[in-house]
Amino acid sequence: GFELKEELKKFLNAKGIETEDKGCYSPESVDYPDFAHKVADAVEKKEVAFGILICGSGNGISMAANKHAGIRAALCWKKEIASLARQHNDANILSLPARFISENEAKEITDTFLSVAFEGGRHANRVNKIAC
């Protein structure tokens, strides 16, 4: 996911969206929970509004992030999934599966995730039931 992360940083910065890179910093193999926890901590503490996590499948990194209170990391492989994750689940971390999407798809998914608002209403009660 390192290469995709680097491209998404350029993409977001070109749109005037500030990014804060929590790692990893090379294409070498790493333990993804280390980075999931750093991003989830920043979102949980409201240091940032949203987080983006990337790993091969997107699954493990989502699982690690979702261990944090108040985190709703959504694994998104299509822009429609990202839209629903925001609208219905108030997702605050986008998880991307680098092995299964193209760079262009990642950009579309990210754009959608960052531009769609939570609908609230009937969904708010459900989101409130997620926390244990």
Description of the molecule:
Helix 2 (32-44) crosses helix 3 and helix 4 (79-89) packs parallel to helix 5. The protein is mostly helical. Helices cover 48% and strands 10% of the residues. The protein has helices at 2-14, 32-44, 59-65, 79-89, 103-115, 122-128, and strands at residues 51-55, 73-75, 93-97. The longest helix is centred in the first third of the chain and has 13 residues, at 2-14. The protein is built from six helices and three strands. The model has no long low-confidence stretch (mean pLDDT 96). It starts with a helix and ends with a helix. A three-stranded parallel β-sheet has the order 1-3-2, sandwiched between helices. The radius of gyration is 14 Å and the shape is globular. Strand 2, helix 4 and strand 3 form a beta-alpha-beta unit.
Biggest β-sheet description: 3 strands, parallel
Structure class: mainly alpha
Which residues form runs of ≥5 with pLDDT under 50? Answer: none
Order of strands in the sheet with most strands: 1-3-2
Please tell me what the overall shape is.
globular
Mean pLDDT: 96
Number of helices: 6
Helix content estimate: 40-55%
Sheet-strand content, in percent, reads 5-15%
Q: What is the number of E strands?
A: 3
* Cα end-to-end separation: 31 Å
